[in-house]
Amino acid sequence: MKRIWIITLICCSNFVNAQVNDTGNNVGIGVSNPSEKLDVAGKVKATAFLGEWNGANISDVLFKAADNNDWDNNLYRNGIYRKWGGPNNPFGGSHGTLLHLGQNDGYSFGFQLASDNYKQLKYRGFKSNGQFYAWYDIYHSGNFNKTVLDKNVPNLVYTNQNNNFSSDQSINGKVNITESLGIGTPGSDSWKLAVNGKIRAKEIKVETGWADFVFYDTYMLPSLEEVEDHIKKKGHLKNIPSAEEVEKNGILLGEMNAKLLQKIEELTLYVIAQNKTNKEQQEEITALKKQLQNFIKEE
């Protein structure tokens, strides 16, 4: 019986030694020539993993590529990186950022998602003089566009290019705004577009009612005496706002154009009526001249 136990212990010892290789510096499990302190060929199950930063290099957790030639992704304390190391030197070679979690790098929180150093998307936040700001960057080939959200001013967004917030911005495509838009002034529930300043355009289309009703037979054209009386009392044409009203309330462009057209059409009717009167008077004058000439001849 003792012989059986001795043989069993010897077999177990040989089996373990065949699986674990200790070179004095490195330990390999299922690896004949371990290249790291612990080199395991296979799965590792643990309830926790602890790594340390030795002051120069941050500890890694490496994931080997399927071809078993290159070590692909690895973990740092503040993100996930991709390191291109060979099978015998997994920690060597350059690395590129895949996911970066901000820590002691100039902002309070954030992450960077990128396929390489030339295409990046960053979300960041920082606190300055007791005020909180947040922004996101889109970085590509040495240039980036930044959008800053200002918590201290509601609904205020700054955009810039390469930290130049005065640079021009361009939008390629349509912009759909369901509520209101304010340029140089806050948006308003009363207006879809509010602009504090001048507007320059090659053409503006206004869709509103028009003043053709002036030419209807039922339209009551005011007499020139009525027009004159209103001007003397009010200082402006009827249905046209005064200078004080325009300065205070402004005008509705489409409505005012219709009112001005109404006055032009009324003026046209006055001119037509005056032209008829002039023709009648001219005919009477011509007839009187003819009678006068005949009277002179008879004398």
Automatic annotation (TrEMBL):
Signal peptide: 1-18
Keywords annotated in UniProt: Coiled coil, Signal
Coiled coil keyword on record: yes
Coiled coil residues, start to end: 271-298
Record protein name field: Uncharacterized protein
Source organism: Zunongwangia pacifica
Lineage of the species this protein comes from: Bacteria, Pseudomonadati, Bacteroidota, Flavobacteriia, Flavobacteriales
